[in-house]
Amino acid sequence: MQYEIWGGQLPAVTIKLQQGESIYTQSGGLAWMSDGIDMQTNMKGGLGKALGRMFSGESPFMATYTARSAGANITFASTMPGEIRTFSVQPGLEYIVQKSAFLCAEPGVSFSATVGRGGVKGALFGGEGLIMQRYSGQGMFFLELDGAVCEYDLAPGETIKVDTGNVAAFEASVNYSAEMVKGFANILFGGEGLFLTTLTGPGKVWLQTMSTAEMAARIIPFLPKSN
Among residues 44, 65, 96, 181, which one has the fewest Cβ atoms lying within 10 Å of its Cβ? Predict the structure, then answer.
């Protein structure tokens, strides 16, 4: 399988499939494709995994595209300004990813909802950033991340504290939890949420400069209001 990521800050990925190769995305995720590709839609992995995907911000239904002949092309486009990044999972290497970042993946990759080390309490009070997706299996997957993306390689015990909306992805070896902002004045006047996401190495971390939720909150006051 060959691919090309293009489009700058409004990116898309075009994937060239060989005969018999497949790629899957959530229902409605296709931009366009050439002739010679078959589509099959189902609840990939069964009802349990479908509900888990829905809980983590994705559609419970997945569409699998399989090439009938070599050289068939299929394109998936990002829904927000940002970057498309490629990751590969294998036994012993898994990833935790923000909600709604999934673009497409090879059939051997699976993902489901996961909650941060703060447990349900951390997820409820730490913001939606602590309800995330865990990617495992074998193969390549593509994510759409918001804004510009910065990568850190945390050493064992090294910690970084991040607004939940700016956490894009990290290796599963990284410990993550919700930590309450200290100080009454910081909570009342600091302009941030009550909690920050704490990431502790070892492992790689991908942070994004923009949050879709924050961008939407900025736009809403300027939308026309009905009388």
Answer: 181
Q: Tell me how crowded residue 13 is: count the other CB atoms within 10 A of its CB.
A: 23
Give me the count of residues in the chain: 227
One-letter amino acid for residue 140 of the chain: M
Q: Is residue 227 part of a domain?
A: no
- Give the least confident one: 23-27, 41-45, 107-111, 127-131: 127-131
Q: Name the token pair of 50.
A: 């479908």
Q: Write down the pTM of the prediction.
A: 0.83
Is 200 within a domain? yes
Q: Residue 186 belongs to what domain range?
A: 2-222
Residue 152: the pLDDT is 97
Evaluated on CA atoms 190, 195, 200, 203, the torsion sign reads: negative
The tokens for 68 are 């009938």
